[in-house]
Each structure stands twice: as C-alpha cells, then as structure tokens.
Amino acid sequence: xxxxxxxxxxxxxxxxxxxxxxxxxxxxxxxxxxxxxxxxxxxxxxxxxxxxxxxxxxxxxxxxxxxxxxxxxxxxxxxxxxxxxxxxxxxxxxxxxxxxxxxxxxxxxxxxxxxxxxxxxxxxxxxxxxxxxxxxxxxxxxxxxxxxxxxxxxxxxxxxxxxxxxxxxxxxxxxxxxxxxxxxxxxxxxxxxxxxxxxxxxxxxxxxxxxxxxxxxxxxxxxxxxxxxxxxxxxxxxxxxxxx
Length: 244
Hints:
Layout: H1 2-23, H2 29-50, H3 62-95, H4 104-130, H5 150-179, H6 192-207, H7 215-237
Helix pairs in contact: 1-4, 1-5, 2-3, 2-4, 3-5, 3-6, 4-5, 5-6, 5-7, 6-7
C-alpha cells in the first residue's frame, strides 16, 4: 500500500513536468541546456540565502526567511533570463539572422520546467520519498490537516509551485525582452513587471504558512495565486508581438 501511494505521489508531482521534458525539451539540445542551466541557477539562489542561517535567530523569523529567499530566487531568475537574452543577441549578430531562432514560449517553459523539477527534488523530495518506507500505510496526518495526509499536501504544493515557476518564467522572459536584454536595468527592482512577479511568488510562499492552521486553506490560497499567474502568462502570450 505504501509503495502504491508513494508512486502515486511521484506521478502526480513529476509526471507532467517529465512528460513535457521528454516530449518537447529533450528533442532540442538548446532547450535541454536552458532547462539544466535554469535548474542550477535556481539551486544557487537557495544556497546563497541559506548561508544566512549561520546568524543566530535568522531561521526563527519565518517572514524574513521567505522574503529573503524569494528575493534571491526571483533575482536569479531575472539574471538567468538576461544571460539568455544576451546569448541570443550574440548568436543573432554572429549568424547574421534577422530575428531570434528561438521562441520565448518554449525557452521560458523549458526554464520553468528545469526550476520546477529541481525545486520539487530539493524541497519536497525527502517528504515524498518517505512515503515508500517510513509509514506502513503510506499516510501520515497532522492535527492541522486531518483531511489530507502530509504526503498528499506536499505533493499538491510541489505541483502547484511547478506550475507557478512555469508562469513566472514566461512573465520574466517577456519582462526582460521588453526592457531590452543588453540594456535592461541592472537592478530589476525598478521594473514594475518584475515587481508583479516578485509579489506573486511572495504571496504563494506566504500562503504555505497557512498549512500550519489548515492545509485546505493553504492549498486554496496557493491555487488562487497560481491561477492569477496563469492568467497573466496567458495575457502575455496572446500579445500580437510576443515572440513565438
């Protein structure tokens, strides 16, 4: 029973991302490079703020931890996108092409998939893997969440954050594209679109704190934030000058 539920969690969390990776990303070397690079950029974004845990009391202030972590994550996403745009511009100049050979749509989704998979493995991998062997029934309930087991809550949070990273990557690519890859502001805090991305990620992250009171409420808040990010990403993609 535990093994069956464990595989169910893995399929729910990684199934969609791996399906997209195999169907789209794996067929083009440049998309695989984008996905892998974005994953390691994101990993760097959580390693840097983790050093702050060496200061006494930092880890005890949850709002501060979330604020600093999200700021680093989105700052690194922004810089990764700038590096992509700069590389793209260099390729266009050297090859003499009139426009980019790459699509912002597939490139942004590849970056989002890379970040989403790495996020899931680092943040939720240990919890989900524990369902295979630590609990005979494959379930574990807490007082704050009698409706869903810890593993289902973790799996759903991971899936929603994967979708969020896809949407935020689409928004970030469009933000940097419109501000100019080479001439983009060195400090993105002055960019209104970047602030929207930052706020969406902050709201999503803070919504997870509701899980300590009600996992259903936390998932609902996170799901609502993800839905808003999807609507914004859709509005970006539907613009007539969007690079597809």
